[in-house]
Design goal:
46% of the residues lie in helices and 8% in strands. With 260 residues, the chain is mainly alpha-helical. The chain has a domain of 178 residues. Strand 1 and strand 2 form a beta hairpin.
Length: 260
C-alpha cells in the first residue's frame, strides 16, 4: 500500500504503509531477523535530555558506551544469512545513508542519521500543525523543507512538541533509512524500541533494514540485483526521478571493486 504519491518522493523515503494486521504478521514472521538485545542503560526518554554541548536527544547512552559501526563480521553474517553479496548490502546502505548510520560530525554520543518527512507528519497527526509550522507539516512533499544533518533532529524535536509519537513515525532512521511508521516491519514491537536500537549501534540499524527487506518481500530482487524492482518497492515510483536504481548499481560496482 502506497502512503504518498510516489512520483513526488525523494530517495530515502519509505512509502509502504502497514496496517495493524500487517504489523502483527511482520513481527511474528519466521523469517524475522534475530537481533541481540540492546545493552542496559540505553533507553528512550521524552522530554528530551540535553548534552553538555547543547544538543538534545531522546535516548540515554551510558557513559563510555561505544555506538559501534557495522563490522566486517556483521556484514559477513548478513551475507551468509540472506544469500546476498556483501557488496549488495553495502550498496543499499551507501545510497540510503552514505555508508554511515550516525551523524559522524557529532561528538559521542552521536545521534542516528534521520530525515524528517513533513508530508508524512501531516498524515500521521490529527493536529493542525501546518497552520503554525508548515515547515513541519505539509500536505505534499517539498524538497525545500529538508535541512539535512543535525538540523533534521531539530525538526523532529520541534514536531514532537506538537505530537510525540506521530512525529517519531514521520522520520526515517539509520543505515537503511527505515521510516518510523515501519518499525514493526523492522522487527520492533514499539516505536520506542526502534529508537533505542537505532541509537545503540549500526548492528541494529542494519538488521532493521534487513527485516524490512524480508517482510516486504524484497530479498529476491536484491539477490538478482534487479535494481529497478528493488528501487520501486523500497522507495516508490519516484525512484526513476531520483535515479535510485542507477545509484544502487553504481554503488554496487564501487563496493565490488573495493572488495576485489
Amino acid at each position: 500500500m502506497i502512503r504518498q504519491k510516489a512520483a513526488a518522493n525523494p530517495v530515502g523515503v519509505k512509502e509502504l504503509a502497514i496496517n495493524s494486521s500487517t504489523d502483527t504478521k511482520a513481527l511474528n514472521s519466521k523469517d524475522q531477523v534475530k537481533m541481540k538485545p540492546v545493552p542496559s542503560g540505553i533507553n528512550y526518554t521524552y522530554p528530551p535530555i540535553q548534552y553538555q554541548d547543547g544538543r538534545k536527544s531522546i535516548c540515554t547512552i551510558p557513559e563510555g558506551y561505544i555506538q559501534a559501526a557495522l563490522s566486517d563480521g556483521d556484514l559477513q553474517d548478513l551475507s551468509n544469512e540472506f544469500g546476498l553479496d556483501v557488496a549488495v548490502i553495502k550498496a543499499v546502505m551507501a545510497v540510503e545513508a552514505g555508508g554511515s548510520g550516525f551523524l559522524l560530525n557529532e561528538p559521542s554520543p552521536a545521534r542516528p542519521k534521520i530525515l524528517f518527512e513533513a508530508h508524512i507528519f501531516y498524515k500521521e497527526t490529527p493536529k493542525p500543525v501546518s497552520r503554525d509550522r508548515p515547515d513541519l507539516s505539509s500536505r505534499s512533499w517539498n524538497r525545500n523543507l529538508y535541512q539535512g544533518g543535525s538540523a533534521e533532529w531539530q525538526r523532529l524535536l520541534d514536531a514532537m512538541t506538537f505530537d510525540e509519537v506521530p512525529a517519531l513515525r514521520s522520520a526515517s532512521y539509520g543505515l537503511g533509512q527505515v521510516m518510523g511508521f515501519n518499525h514493526t516491519s523492522a522487527g520492533c514491537s514499539s516505536i520506542q524500541q526502534f529508537i533505542q536500537e537505532n541509537f545503540a549501534g549500526e548492528y541494529w540499524q542494519a538488521r532493521h533494514m534487513m527485516n524490512f527487506i524480508v517482510n516486504k518481500n524484497l530479498l529476491d530482487a536484491l539477490r538478482r540485483k534487479d535494481w529497478a524492482v528493488f528501487a520501486q518497492r523500497y522507495n516508490g515510483e519516484g525512484y526513476r526521478q531520483n535515479q535510485y536504481d542507477t545509484k544502487l548499481a553504481n554503488a554496487y560496482q564501487r563496493a565490488s571493486s573495493a572488495n576485489a
